[in-house]
What does this fold into?
Amino acid sequence: MTATATTPATTETKAPTGPGMRFVNWGANYIEDRTSMSGLVKELGRKIFPDHWSFMLGEVALYSFVVILLSGTFLTFFFQASMAPVVYEGSYPTLKGVEMSAAMASTLDISFDVRGGLLMRQVHHWAALLFVASIGLHMLRVFFTGAFRKPREINWVVGFLLFVLAMAEGFTGYSLPDDLLSGNGLRIIDGMVKGIPVIGTWISYLLFGGEFPGEAIVGRLYMLHIMLLPALVIAAIGVHMILLIVNKHTQFAGPGRTEGNVVGNPIMPVFAAKAGGFFFIVFGVIMLIAATVTINPIWNYGPYDPSPVSAGTQPDWYIGFADGTLRLIPPGWEFELWGFTFSMNIIVPIIILVVFLVLVAFYPFIEAFVTGDKREHHMTERPRNAPTRTAIGAAGVTFYAVMWAAASSDLIATHFRLSIEGVTHTLQALLILGPIIAYIVAKRISIALQKKDREIALHGYESGRIVRLPGGEYIEVHEQLSDYERWRLVSYDDYAPLMVRPNANGKITFGTKLRGVMSRWFFEDRIAPVTRTEIEASKHGHH
Amino acid sequence: MAGTDGAAPGTAVERHESAPLPSGVAVISDDRVENPGFPPYRPRVSDTDPVKERQNERRVFWLFLASMIGSVFAVVAYIVFPIHEGDLGSVRLNNLFLGLGFALGLLGIGFGAVHWSKSLMDGHDMVELRHDTRGKPETIARASEIFTLGNKESGFTRRKLIRNGLLGALVLAPLSAVVIFRDFAPADDPATLLKHTMWEKGTRLARDPNGVPIKASDVTIGSVFHVIPENLNDSEHPLEEKAKAAVLLMRLNPEDLHISEGREDWSFRGIVAYSKICTHVGCPVALYEQQTHHLLCPCHQSQFDITREAAVIFGPAKRPLPQLPITVDEEGYLVAQSDFHEPVGPSFWERSL
Ligand code: HEM
Ligand code: FES
It folds into this structure.
């Protein structure tokens, strides 16, 4: 390594000369004398980042958030977060003279009277969709590779908060233009809030500053959208990044890689160039989409009015699962008791969503309890090597997917010429059966893949080459793996069910029993990794 | 030192030295396959072939040049494709060309930098050792000592009275701020407001949105009208009133209607009026199927049967749409007999109190 500017300023470091370099050198020393930056550079400058395509999902999320901040800031210079009624006099012909809120009118002005305004609106909206999608995929990556295990449980929870915050940001943003669709979305939120027992009516009343829709909600959501929520998102991203640096990145198994090292590219220069370049690619792709594909054409919907029809309209994709859950409740789920109304058709979906999200948030702690494994884990697992986790994940994804599909039940029905009743009943059944089927299938596939890996590790690949032995017998030649190739297949964590034993006082506690049951559920079907002895044996068998 | 630069191929693999922690139900076998260590480095073409290296260098430069062209193009497009008032085509062109320019400006930088890093920068994997996340024992001992000192010097656990006093004060301070949220909304009681709409005895039923009153004779069998109270547009809060008072008016064959006791005179010659606000979560229920006399809510597909007083026949809604009792005035216009007899729209806690 070459020397960098780390010595005290009194003895200026010898650095490459030349007019440009002399200035850089002077600047580095100037800053160093005042900030002691060299310590940070020393610590982080050559930090290693492992490479894998799936590690880019989190980066996409981060970069699309930066794009959101930039485009959103541009929009704030024009947007008026007011529901005061105005008569639209802008340049969109069909709405001229129509009464609407100042919010809607200013959004139309951004779209039709500001050069680049429509582009920035579309960049903002597309980036928002990509932001939530990439966070979701990133979470799936972390889940299915077990990257949430110790010491990263807290960072999983922080990431989960980011996911929820992102949805909140998206929903508040979607509501700002005060067009027909955004008002309808708020109407549904209002109805859901009113269904909450005891406090619902009041929460809705206070939130909307009176009766729905009122004249307050856009201003209030605006404050949340551009101040409170972004501040929380930025704070959470900060914590997420600091923990990432403290814990270091996980890596997939590979020859030479261990729990004790990180193998990959240093920040300076390779990772910085790659990641920095990737930011511009993400930004560029969003820009390309925004330039060519219209999104949220509010001028087609018109201003909010509580009365017109809006069949076949869809919320942004990430709200779908909540809307779908509402649709799947069978008729008649509401009752009165002591004069109070219990809207189970709203309470139950809310409970389902909250329980689902809580399970997601706490999954790392559940699995840590089951394994009782207190070691640190820095190797990402291949999904097949944790079959029960993979199956649970598949069940969760299916559950989410069914709720999400339900939000388009009417479109499914009209598109495939089915009855809405039939589609709804099918989805209701799928909501319960789908996850069970997905669980079983995913587990079977994982175990089958593990068996295949075992086979390959021991006997090599089928080369497709058939030879005839002197005895007249035909065999297919198997291509043996190199040690490097085999290592990927045989190095994974192996767990077995807990043997439930009494503790020092001769008692079996409830916790132990529970762990026994759960670990049996997790690890009963277990394919142990190939051992050295087995490899030796197979080599002798293949002379 | 954080990083040892460059892993020599095939070096013995560093062991993870830390106090063994409980491994739970993990199976730790002595017979594990051993890590073969790093494979030898496979050089890229540009590592060995100076011609290829120069080629890659040129390629990176072309990408950066493309970016510059894109950015200049964006500036030109901003000027060359202005927006003409009322001309939507000009908006589209401005959006397209400005966006394409920006996109090229960004993608050129992005692909250039990534290509540079992949083809020209040092391609060796490098290794950094991990350390336990948990700090060194000395550090932890010092940290807990600091807390102990802090506790001793302040008397935080010893002086229970003032400690509990502090905790109480800290809890109460934010709680007292809860009251200031009351004035987020006016002084009224929401449960009372939700139980009334603008409709009252004699209010004419008018077309939505123009407010033209409807004569009973205009309503032919099978037709459907979207209705608001005639005086809606003069009210102080038209949107809030409309969100409760919107009504659908239909005329059926009187013999198709199954009318329950007490509602015999709520309709007029087969003309019936029902709240348009869904009893699920409040969307406008506005899709009317003339053959079946079913109303469909577009939001979650609740269906209401108008022949049976808007009873729910499908979907998550529980209650029928409230019926507005109507009649005609002396000029033949349809008018309300009174307000709805129950709250309209989504359920709420105090609804039937
Ligand atoms: C993760 C964060 C964010 C998400 C997911 C998000 C999402 C959205 C969405 C979906 C819209 C509706 C856009 C449309 O009209 O189609 C919107 C509007 C808006 N957003 Fe954001 N946003 C985020 C952060 C921000 C930030 C940080 C700012 C300001 C610095 C901002 C400023 C605005 C403004 C001014 C509008 C209204 C203008 C308009 O609708 O065109 N947003 N946002
Ligand atoms: S609002 Fe009508 S079904 Fe949900």
The first strand of chain B starts at residue 3 and ends at 4.
